[in-house]
Amino acid sequence: MSFDLVLFGGTGDLTWRKLMPALFQAFRHGKLPPGGRILAVARDERSDEAYREFIRERFNEVDSAKRPTDGEFDRFAQLLHYRRMDLSQPEHYAGLKRWIEEPRAEEGRSTPADTVVLFLATSPHLFTQICAQLGAAQLNGPKVRVVLEKPLGHDLASAQEINRVVAASFTEQQALRIDHYLGKPSVQNLSALRFGNALFEPLWRRESIANIQITLAEGIGVGTRGEFYNQTGALRDMVQNHALQLLTMVAMEPPASNDADAIRDEKLKVLRSLKPFTPDSVVRDVVRGQYRSGTVDGKTVPGYLEEDKVPPGSRTETFVALRTEVQNWRWAGVPFYLRTGKRLAARDAQIVVNFRPVPHPIFPGANVANKLVIKLQPEDGLELHLMAAKGTGQTEALSPVFLDLDFDKAFSSERVGAYERLLLDAIAGKLNLFVRSDEQEQAWRWVEPVLDAWANDDAAPRLYAPGSWGPPASSALVARDGFAWAEEQ
């Protein structure tokens, strides 16, 4: 299956930091279909060769294990092409259409590509303009797919407007809304864990589970992204998309099949079942924070208000912790805790399923609940925490132990990264790991009362020390129910 992959924003950070390394890994692994071309488009003028050298230099900044040798890059670079485009000019889209449709004898292709993927790696405010122009240029035929990178809008109304313009030119099956967390191997294994094994399903409900915690923590600050981040904040940047998608994967009912829409139907039901926020519950169940200056690993780091291009007195949150519930029979009364933030104690993404303690403990001092830890980053695997006899001759002495499954060690072959998987799925037309428009809009519908409450609240975010796990109010939020965050257990 031949393909053309067009990267709008071909010289931007997302392209050279994430997409090109992922595409190279797919090439290195022999996963890219033969007869493919990768076309980068951007505003400045440069040749194919100049663009290839630009990408070669950028590869020096990626993880050394994923860096190509000179020979590998030379072979990969033959797929790379460049075209100058002014995204506001209709004639440039017409030229792109001709480039896609013209046979290239020197590339061994006598017919146009079987599949065309248009990846919008641009600022989101350009999405509607690009999609409208693509439709006007008739670059929206049945073999074309458009990939939209988050954030999709900044509130429900803007998300609906983007979806309206996209739907005017592309069908729902052609519009792929990407959330790279869904491409992580551990998230894919979450479905396998739940629906491919009989072990957990009888326990995966309110009778056995006390609470579920989802943590998406970053150790770094906003760095050079101060201007973007100040307009976005942690709730929009991480909760509305990544955290809620993980929640739906944990909480959804078994789908009728592995079909994309069967899965997305069940995820949508979860989003619609989330306990809605009110102004009072935002005060009670949501904590927003902002990191201050301090010391991390012996080095002084600036506070958020001291970061480049962050305006004085900004109330943008760099940390969010919240409590919610899924109001259905399976999960009634089970709290779900979500938290995310920057300048936290570690780079750590995980889902912790805390089971209820045994109803009648017969071993003294051993009434410690089991838990399942699904690790997303930096490690990728599962931990099942149990109680076991110490084997010291004292039969009543139990100790906590855990079974550790490291996916990288368990599977000998090199594993596919998140963007690599999603790009390959986009080329192949597999929709399971992409977000449907009604899912995306329902997620905005759920977080919008929080945004509205903050907009009408003069209180500043709670300050927290860099290198900590956020404001103390985050711990209090969980402790109110008699629980604790995983690192405090």
From TrEMBL:
Domain of life per record: Bacteria
Positions annotated to bind substrate: 180, 184, 218, 237, 342
Keywords noted in UniProt: Carbohydrate metabolism, Glucose metabolism, NADP, Oxidoreductase
Keyword NADP among UniProt keywords: yes
Pathway, per record: Carbohydrate degradation; pentose phosphate pathway; D-ribulose 5-phosphate from D-glucose 6-phosphate (oxidative stage): step 1/3
Enzyme Commission number(s) from the entry: 1.1.1.49
Pfam families given in the database record: G6PD_C (PF02781), G6PD_N (PF00479)
Residues engaged in binding NADP(+): 43, 86-87, 150
Active-site residues per Swiss-Prot or TrEMBL entry: 242
GO cellular component: cytosol
A single GO molecular function term of this UniProt record: glucose-6-phosphate dehydrogenase activity
Domain Glucose-6-phosphate dehydrogenase C-terminal: start-end pairs: 192-485
Function per UniProt: Catalyzes the oxidation of glucose 6-phosphate to 6-phosphogluconolactone.
Similarity-based family: Belongs to the glucose-6-phosphate dehydrogenase family.
Name this protein carries in UniProt: Glucose-6-phosphate 1-dehydrogenase
Species this protein is from: Aquincola agrisoli
Gene: zwf
